[in-house]
Amino acid sequence: MAMPSFSPRYEQAKLLQEEIHPRYSHLIKEDKVLKMSDMALRLFTTPPAVQYHYQAKTLRIPLLRPNFIVFQPRLFSSTKSSVRSGTIRCKATGESSQSSFNPTVYQGIYGPWTVDSSDVREVILYRSGLVTAAASFVLAASVTFLPDNFSWNSIIKQNVDLFYSLGAGGLGLSLLLIHIYVTEIKRTLQALWAVGIVGSLATYITLAQPAGESLVQYVVDNPTVVWFIGPLFAALTGLVFKEGLCYGKLEATVLTFIIPILLLGHLTSLMEDGAKVTLLGLWMALFVVFAARKFTQPIKDDIGDKSVFMFNALPEKEKKALVKKLEQQKQSENLN
What we know:
Helix content: 55-70%
Number of helices: 13
Strand order of the largest sheet: 1-2-3
């Protein structure tokens, strides 16, 4: 029996099927998909937008323009993908097409970029770390302003070191995910945080615990201990300085000065208690405003120019090639 002759679009179907299987095996089981020859004939011998239903999943594959197959699985949900204008889209039957995610393309220094689901997750975690740090700090410092007979006062004092630990952990998470173009600055802030954590643990184990005091209370009673925990707050100062510089946030700029002034004033014992309490209250209020206002910013603001980070991740050889290509494009545009 003579084998049937297939059109060039049959070859397109073969290529398309080879791409679909490894990328979307969680949607379509390989052992239950139609054989390739049958699938190809169904797709390319009938009008566009043929649908193949399989276990409540719908595979929509319109006719493709020749030599134009681009796969972009940039979606929040693992159950969605698109084949529209050169992309593949697989979705469950009955699902609304309006729920698809169409990322905005931004033009960066080294090329276009988009915000994907991993970027959104990192930014939310970064901001959540700041909220944790701010909330923990405010709770721990609130005993300064609460009356002694307040019911929660004793509870907060008993758990003040827990709040300190939660705040330090939240700050560490934010420093891990912060986007700074100069890697050395980011590593310096992280190193300061690590030194401050080690200093805090050493102070608690060797000094505060034998004295029967919490770490926070021991620092209040012994100003010289600021040398050991200070690097942790230096890292926080660097973070708020970056935020104030990049986004023009007034509360972040003011915090950049309040934090070191208060700590140095306590360390040197040159500042009166009234001034310390005033600065501490300002620190608490501005820290809350700063952390809350982070959630009013667009996600892309905390990402920055993603093309810069993508460029920095390239090997040196590829960096040079990309820079050369961009220079040639710029020269071509100038000539035109």
